[in-house]
Amino acid sequence: MRIKVDDMVRVIAGADRSDDVNVKVLKVLAEKNKVIVEGVNRVFKHMRRSQRNPQGGRLSKEMPISVSNVMLVCDSCAKPTRVGVRYRDDGSKERFCKKCGAGNGLVSPPRKGYAK
């Protein structure tokens, strides 16, 4: 999966789709291929009154959405883009923007076999 925690993404499909709002990834669920995004896919959890929660009521929380419904926003060109992975000269692997070609962070540490 090429999306990490604290990345800025744009929701491109679903009920919370937005054309101009970038939001932050809170959690990545790699085994389920889903992400939890700030303020997206909110549901209400009804809480019964108890000693811990004397008021009771409805709590709002974010639920996971499919990673295919979000698109990474590039740091340099500030546009939603597809993400590729390439090897750098020192053998480390990095994510890059398919539109402008700028790097978006390392994926793995340097490996001797891939160094130039």
Short précis:
0% of the residues lie in helices and 44% in strands.
User: What number is the mean pLDDT?
Assistant: 92
Q: What's the helical proportion of residues?
A: under 10%
Work out the number of β strands. 11
N- and C-termini, Cα separation:
26 Å
Counting DSSP H or I runs of 4 or more residues, the number of helices is 0
Strand order of the largest sheet: 6-3-2-1-7-8
Radius of gyration: 18 Å
Largest sheet: 6 strands, antiparallel
**What is the N-to-C succession of helices and strands?**
EEEEEEEEEEE
Kindly name the structural category.
Answer: mainly beta
Low-confidence stretches: none
- Gross geometry: elongated
- What fraction of residues sit in β-strands? 35-45%
Give the key terms.
elongated, mainly beta, 116 residues, six-stranded antiparallel beta sheet
Notes on the structure:
It is elongated and about 65 Å long. A hairpin with a 6-residue loop joins strand 7 and strand 8. The model has no long low-confidence stretch (mean pLDDT 92). The protein is mainly β. It contains no helices and eleven strands. The strands form three sheets. A six-stranded antiparallel beta sheet has the order 6-3-2-1-7-8, with no helix packed on it.
